[in-house]
Amino acid sequence: xxxxxxxxxxxxxxxxxxxxxxxxxxxxxxxxxxxxxxxxxxxxxxxxxxxxxxxxxxxxxxxxxxxxxxxxxxxxxxxxxxxxxxxxxxxxxxxxxxxxxxxxxxxxxxxxxxxxxxxxxxxxxxxxxxxxxxxxxxxxxxxxxxxxxxxxxxxxxxxxxxxxxxxxxxxxxxxxxxxxxxxxxxxxxxxxxxxxxxxxxxxxxxxxxxxxxxxxxxxxxxxxxxxxxxxxxxxxxxxxxxxxxxxxxxxxxxxxxxxxxxxxxxxxxxxxxxxxxxxxxxxxxxxxxxxxxxxxxxxxxxxxxxxxxxxxxxxxxxxxxxxxxxxxxxxxxxxxxxxxxxxxxxxxxxxxxxxxxxxxxxxxxxxxxxxxxxxxxxxxxxxxxxxxxxxxxxxxxxxxxxxxxxxxxxxxxxxxxxxxxxxxxxxxxxxxxxxxxxxxxxxxxxxxxxxxxxxxxxxxxxxxxxxxxxxxxxxxxxxxxxxxxxxxxxxxxxxxxxxxxxxxxxxxxxxxxxxxxxxxxxxxxxxxxxxxxxxxxxxxxxxxxxxxxxxxxxxxxxxxxxxxxxxxxxxxxxxxxxxxxxxxxxxxxxxxxx
Length: 594
Prior knowledge:
Strand content: 5-15%
CATH topology of the largest domain: Rossmann fold
Strand order of the largest sheet: 3-4-2-5-6-1-7
Largest sheet: 7 strands, parallel
Distance between the termini: 52 Å
C-alpha cells in the first residue's frame, strides 16, 4: 500500500483554477487533509484507476469532488461522471458537497451540473432533472438501476466512475447491483477512457475480487497517519417541538454540574438569535459566525477560553479549526447535514481521557436522520445515539441545590484552614473581614442563625432556586423500537442467500412475483436503519415461524423494513406470532403482483 506524504499547507500546490481556489476558501478549506494530498495528484493527472482506503471524516468527498469539477467544465448530451453511494443521505451529502465547490456564475462557471438520484423520493422529478441535463449523477444503486431500466439514465458517456463507501454497500447487500452498474458502464465505454476510483474504510476480499475483475491489479492508497483518538462522548438525542428547544436547552445547562460547551446552529441569523435569548435569560453566552470581524472573533474566543462566557453558539464554518480544551458538552440545536459534520462537532468534547456529552435537539420529522447517524456512529465512534428525556424540573432543581450547597461548603472549608481558635485573639476573626463578622453577629442575634441564612440564600440564589421560571415541554416519547439484541436472542442462522431474489422491479411498490410451490413472500418491520442485517431477519423469521433460518430465502433489506421468502405454513405461524408480540417488529404477508 502507498502511504501518506507530508501535508502541504495550501491547496495552491495542486495548480487548481482560481475559481476553484475561491470556492474552497468560501467553504473554509484552507489546508488539504492527508487523504486529499494522496488522491488529488492522481485524479488531477492521468494516472489510471484508483483504490483508496479512507476513513470517514478524512475529506475524501472533496478528494474526488475537486477533480470532477475541475475536469467537467462543459455540458453534454449525457452524464459524464457516476458516483455511487450506499444511502440516500450520503447521496444528498455528496451531491451537496460537490455542488458547493462548483464556481459561481459570475466567475464564469456554469458546469458541472450535479443531480442526486435515490429511493424514497419522486422518481418523476429525478427523471426531469436528468432530462434537463447533468454532468455528474450521484445516486444509490437501486434507483440508478431503476433509471437505467426505464432508459432514463444514459451511462454511455461516463468518463468517471466513483464508488464511495464500498464496504458499506457490501454490508448492505448492494454489491450485486454495483457490479451490474459497473459492468454496464464498462461495456458502454469499452472504446473510451474510463477512470474508476473506489473509496472504502476497509478492504474485504469481496471488494478486492470485484476490483481485480474490472480494473485489474491496482495499488491501494492509504493514509498511514495515525487516526485521531476517538472522543469519549456519550451521545443522546431528544425529540422536541421546535418551540420547546430553548426550554430543553435551559434545563440541560442548569442541570449540568459545570456546563462549558458549544451549541451548533445551522445559520448565522439563528446563532445570533439564540445567543441573544440566552443572554436575556442571564446565561453567559456569545455567538460566533462568519460575519464577525477577526478582532471580534478573537475577543469572543478569549472570553470563552477564560470562561468569562461558558456557552458559545456557533455555526459549523465559524467553529472550523477551534481547539478548546475541557468542553463538557456539545449541543446540536440543529442537526448537521451529514455524518462527517456530526463527527467534527461531537469530537470537540470527550478529549484527553475526559468524558463529554453530545445532545441533539431533534424535531419529530428528523428521527430517520438520527437513526442513520446513530448507525454510522456505532461503527465510527463505537457507540450509538441514545434517546433521552428532557430533564425534569425536579431533577434540575436538585442539581442546582447540590451545586449551591457544594459551593458554600467549599468556601467554608477555605475559611476553616486557619490557626486554631486559641491562637486567635478574641477580638479578631481571620476567616472574614471585621465588617462582615460584625454584620453576621448582628443578623444572627436579631433574626436567628437559620433565618439569617435563609434570607441571605434567597438574596444570592433566589432566582436560581425559583422553579416557576421553567416552562412546560411537550413530551414526545421514545420511538417504539425494541433492541435487535432482545428481538433476536441467541445465535442468528446464516440465510441461504441474500439478494434481489423474487423482487421484481416496476409496477406497484414492494410487489413481488409469487414463486411456484409452497413458498410465499413476507414483510418484516425491521430494516437497516434499525441496525438489523439479513442474518437478523432470517433469525427472527426462523424463531417466529418455527423453522431453521436456512429456509428463509431471498432477503431484501430496506431502510425501515425487509422482505423475505419462506414456506407458507411457517409464514402463517410467523404472522400469528407477530400479532401476539406488540413490541416485536410487524410480520405480515407481502402484497403479491400477479
